[in-house]
Amino acid sequence: MGKQRLTQSQQLLVDRIEEALSHAKTELGKTKAQVALECNVTAQALNNWLRRGTISKQSMTLLAEATQVNPLWLYTGKGGIRPVPAEIKESEYPAYQANIDKHLMTKSIEHVFSLFLEETSQKKASELAKYVTAYYFKLSNGENILDTIAELQKNNN
Known about the structure:
Elements lengths: L7 H21 L3 H7 L4 H10 L4 H11 L3 H6 L25 H15 L5 H20 L3 H12 L1
Helix pairs in contact: 1-3, 1-4, 6-7, 7-8
């Protein structure tokens, strides 16, 4: 059986996964096997992500955490690869249920970011706001970052 041909979007995802793994190796000193272990998968499963160009949202979230890359970048290619600050740990924040509207929070953060960014960076302010909102809901409610970002993207269109 020949090598499976990937679609363009699958190849872009593979490229981002490879870049995340490279970041983990050069910046964190982690091997692929160590990253796989932190993602609760086998090294073979990780290699299958690269070969097939597919990965579950849960595994993608774990991969972003294990490699300390921006999950929004890993999921969509938007934003930068810049690592999530290592000093932020979930255990530093109290877990509580908050009745906060995600969209209102995102719009508020976007407004504040836009005050500090040039007009040409309004789209960047929007993407940053979505990431901050998603990260907040992950820390406070244990929600999946990618699900929150997808929800905000869907309702933004």
